[in-house]
Amino acid sequence: MKTAEITLVVSSIQDSIRAATQVVKTQQGDILGLQSQTLPNDPVLPTVSLQIRVPAERLDATLAQLSQLGTVTNQRLTAEDVSDQLVDFDARLRNLRKTEETLLQIMERSGSVADVLKVAQELSNTRQAIEQTAAQLHRLNSQVAYSNITVVMEALLPLAPKQRSLAVQLQETWDRAVQSMGNLTIDLSKLGIWLIAYTPYWVILGLGIVWGRRTLRRRRMATTSPPIPPCPPTN
Asked: Residue 53 and residue 33: Cα distance in Å, rounded?
């Protein structure tokens, strides 16, 4: 006796129900019940539970087709061996029917009214036990011949984005501006530390530049100054 459970996340509940109904019909099964509810953590998202019965030999094929209707998030298959129960019910039913035949034979014999009434009462009890045992055996055989499937369908609907208020937007802008100013201040402080650390090199570089400029200016002045005229000869 096999039972199965499968949970699916589907894009459309209604379309998935129609598709599941077609699958059950193809596999010669029946839909025993349908229950719709909402998830406890989010009342907006619906969920549907289907109770399905299919022939036992078609259980695997049915599960394979149902799993194609959406994303499988949970699947479970359980099996119970009821062979001993079937044997017990069958043996009990045979014994009860033999008892019924014996009581009928006793009823046909002549006897006192009290004996006949007593046998009639025993016969009624036996027939009632036969009906109960036959019903139990029939139900057990039906559970073996057919497998029950519980299909849970969940629809994850897209949530509409929440509109932020003007105050929230202004607060976020102010926070970003303050953060940006803080980052700029930190960067400038780091730059100042680097400049102070390299001060000796900046002094050397500045002195080199000053010395170079002065040297270059002297050379230019030396090349551009007019030549001194020679002195006239003396008599």
From this structure: 10
